[in-house]
């Protein structure tokens, strides 16, 4: 079976600053991962040395035949000390944006991808009275370098960010998907919503939205009411904020089953990925449909979707299924503008390098990039706009 995506559909790959750049020493997550006796098994260290090797990475994206690269600007580099903006950091990210444009790539820029400056966290983080204005000041500083950027993601997965705060408080690494974690701290959730609105005000005519971790919640054993309540706190309230945005970023990997007592384990005998998530490519199409139903009329950009696997054939299998579900949703009239595969590189996955999501392998010692067969397969899909199942 063969299906075709529309002309102009944006195909790309994604990454984030902390996970790829290396030595993000002024951030809160760097402090967390380097804390003596901490609960994270690995530190990011040099990561993929992407801060210096971004040209090589952009050449790979272009060489694959993709049309976009999603990356983040690191707040902790731009404002390492409160009120002191680094012009050198801004110039670096401007070069990255220009590097995309010179190669014919659309730069999809994220302003906040999980990490904040350590000073921000020490000053009370997102629930401090001054938090929104601090974020607004950062956005105002970045705005002059965004010329030519077609769309900006203000905050990556605010629902996950708010849930992660509870994870850190519990001093342990969760072994399940985000949707099975404790609910987000509501005060922090509302602060993130206010920060998103402030950022959109500062961005003015630049098209903007934010991205949400979609967990594809599914009720079992008649737990429809429980599932609805579970989804509202962890996902839907964050989608509702985007009802007037220029786009919404959908990020989906797997599903979460909800029973009368809450989230259930992955079913016995189900295929699992390296992250121990259920192998469930249908999650993407389902998440897109749920988002479109929740906030009708808002264009959708798939800003993350992928699989942690050491089997590259399995990556092709998963992505084929995910794209088939996405195409079916689009065929039913849902407005989806593009797809960003997570991730371009095998990178730091928030405490460990073990899960390999990348289309490109990275040698941990030399940082040499090796393009995987799945990347060339994906590039062919992007170049032709055609998916063969």
> How many separate domains make up the residues?
1
Taken in chain order, the helices and strands follow as: EEHHHEHHEHHEHHEEHEEEHEHEEEHE
Strand order of the largest sheet: 2-3-4-5-6-8-11-12
Give helix % range: 25-40%
Q: Radius of gyration in whole Å, from Cα?
A: 19 Å
What count of helical segments does DSSP give? 13
CATH topology: TIM Barrel
Keywords:
389 residues, alpha/beta, TIM Barrel, 8-stranded parallel beta barrel, 13 helices, globular
Write up what this structure looks like.
- By secondary structure, the protein is of the alpha/beta class.
- It has one domain: Glycosidases (TIM Barrel).
- Helix content is 40%, strand content 17%.
- It has 13 helices and 15 strands.
- The strands form four sheets. It has an eight-stranded parallel barrel, surrounded by six helices.
- A hairpin with a 2-residue loop joins strand 9 (256-259) and strand 10.
- Helix 7 runs parallel beside helix 9, helix 11 (282-294) runs parallel beside helix 12 and helix 12 runs parallel beside helix 13 (373-384).
- The model has no long low-confidence stretch (mean pLDDT 96).
